[in-house]
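A further point concerns the way the authors explain their paired sequence and structure data. For illustration, here is how one protein appears when written out as sequence plus structure tokens:
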Amino acid sequence: MVKAANDDGIRVTIKTLAKLAGVSHTTISRALNNSPLVKPQTKKKIQRLAEEMGYVPDINAKGLVTNKAFVVGIYFSRLKSGTSSNFLAESIRQIKYALADYTLAINGLDLVSNKLSLLANGKPDGVLFISQSVSDDPYIEFMRDNGIPVVVINRRTSVTNVINIVPDEYHGVYQAIQYAIRLGHQNFGLIKGADNFASTQIREQGLRDAIKDSQTASIRESSIVQGDYSRKSGFHSMNKILMQDEIPSLVFCSNDEMAMGALKACHKFGLKVPEDISLIGFDNADYAQFMIPGLTTIYKPVDEIAKRGVTELKELMSNDLVVKERNDEEIVATELIIRDSVMDLRK
């Protein structure tokens, strides 16, 4: 094992590696950037040597050569509340993996004092907005107007000349409620998501339209309770529903975290799911299959949406493009995942 030179305070550069490996510094650079122009055996040898020597790329020097900052801004609508921990973690995991060569500047727009502060540390090479609210649009427009490549995922935006990738939440909920109606459910409850989030309104509309189109099912306004996408709000919202004189046979929870809280509330009231009351969630979080009973939910492909967003952003950045005179929108399908939390009332 070669001792890491920087353990002794000596900076290891590409020239250092080139001298030790007996190749040109161009070959070193190509190998470290995984170029197909370098033979696999040579590439592996150079990458192993760089690791053993403790080589750290000089991002600043690289930026001077390429005129790039090697920074990508990642903005969520909210980090204080409304963004579930599962959604946050899955989004960042996918983005971090796909943008390994960049430093990610992650923030919530609820923590940003004004639009100018977005550029306080200089222009990023690109920005990915993981948007939930129409209140994000002024920030999206600001970055676009400053010549920065912008991709908006997770919510349909009215901002033009940006790439927009959104899940088909409406039809996902519509199909899930249709499924429940086919199983004999007629009385529904709803635990809504965070106020002013687009997903909250879209998911509620999918529920209401499926009920209306059935011409047999119904939902009482007193069985519609405002949550905020947290487990705690799911618990308290379900408490309110269960304290009514007449409870619905099924409650749609606008995400899986609230469904988990709602399940705990059912246990508190001595009710069994699905024998006494049924639940449907949204997201298909990784823990949904391990809940007791397994949660019937709507799969939102966060990983695919994030990957598509990053792919589009990388293409814009690599070609030094800011989207002009077009407004590309990609819709990603959702899917009903059937488990054990919905009772078949036809039996």
